[in-house]
Amino acid sequence: MPRVYNSIVVPAPVEEVWARIRDFHDFSWAPTLIASCEKVGEGDGATVGARRLLNGVFLDTLVGYSALERRIVYTIDDAPSPISPREIRNYVGTLHLLPVTAADATFAEWSGSWEAGGDAGVAYMDGIYRSLLHDLAAGFGERAHAR
């Protein structure tokens, strides 16, 4: 089962970072990679079952949401190669925030896993996660280093 994991320390309190990312229908914080984020169907961006279309090609569904844990879990239902439904199955991604209390900062981790015959999508998704996490940190005034 292919898996991708990236993390970054965001130079802002966890409450501020969560306020920026908590709406599944709002990707305005990631201008480097996300040109458009369209709400698909009913429901708000904090309701399980909410759907979005990113850049006209990535169709995602919110399958888990916890404001208390500051966690968003989603599936990718349609996407371009190398993570299209013809190439992968059962993609699940998780964005999770944790406080770094000593520095009044936030530890953001983004992971994804799926079933596939190979791992061609790993480098692709790694690049996406890195870009998104860099945008998240940059939105708070500093460019941090993803790991």
Q: Which SSEs are present, and which pair or pack?
A:
Layout: E1 3-10, H1 14-21, E2 37-40, E3 51-54, E4 58-66, E5 71-78, E6 88-100, E7 105-116, H2 120-138
Antiparallel strand pairs: 1-7, 2-3, 3-4, 4-5, 5-6, 6-7
- The Cα radius of gyration reads 15 Å
Total number of strands: 7
Number of helices: 2
Name the CATH class: Alpha Beta
Main beta sheet, described?
7 strands, antiparallel
Domain count: the total is 1
> DSSP strand (E) fraction?
35-45%
End-to-end separation in angstroms reads 21 Å
**Approximate shape:** globular
CATH superfamily: START domain
Which sequence of strands runs across the widest sheet? 1-7-6-5-4-3-2
User: Which spans have pLDDT < 50 for at least 5 consecutive residues?
Assistant: 143-147
Name the average pLDDT: 94
- Which CATH architecture? 2-Layer Sandwich
Question: Approximately how much helix is present in the residues?
Answer: 10-25%
The class by helix and strand makeup works out as alpha+beta
H/E element order: EHEEEEEEH
* CATH level 3 topology: Alpha-D-Glucose-1,6-Bisphosphate, Chain A, domain 4
What keyword list fits this structure?
147 residues, single chain, disordered C terminus, 7 strands, 2 helices, globular, 18% helix, Alpha-D-Glucose-1,6-Bisphosphate, Chain A, domain 4, alpha+beta, seven-stranded antiparallel beta sheet
